Structure prediction request, 207 residues.
Amino acid sequence: MGRKSLKEARKQEIINVFYQVAKKEGYENTSIAKIAKVMDINPSLIIHYFDTKEGMTYALIDHILDRYLSIYSARHKGKANLADLEKTIDMLFSKKWNLLFDDGLFYTFYALAFREKKIKLKYKLILDALRNGLASIIEQCSSQGLIQVENPQVTADYIFVLVDGAYFYLSMESDKKAYVERLAYYKQKAYDALSLSEAKLHPLSAS
Prediction:
């Protein structure tokens, strides 16, 4: 048990450094030798854990999934309420969400998905898991009569289409004020899709 935990901790440490080096140098310019130099270890130790750079890439994409799925906490399981739904939507359209993973690496791996089947499958797993998680929260709220959504899965898919398109577009935006305004606009569109008004979310403050 202890050895396994130590092994997993070491692998995660390597992945974290891989991410930082790739973020700074670019994925194409990142090598096992560079990672080993930063960590002050022998490259053979990294090869022992991951064999190749591709092995580290697959592990890093799995790490992306874990980071993104952190939006769905344990409190959502079973009976989510409007507060849970609001927190989820607010998180999706926030700077914090955008900073969960570097845009440059995210789109680099996305491009690789068109050439490598394994990466494509992993990316589909990420996208499906995020949509299904949101659909589950919407379904729970709908079943309690808190909102009226005809098809939670379709609505969740629409909201993530907004999320994906919003951040790709906003990654080109250098004006901070325009960035904030556009992000707020996209978030409102997500609330519109849920037929949620300010009065429903904050009934006391609206009265």
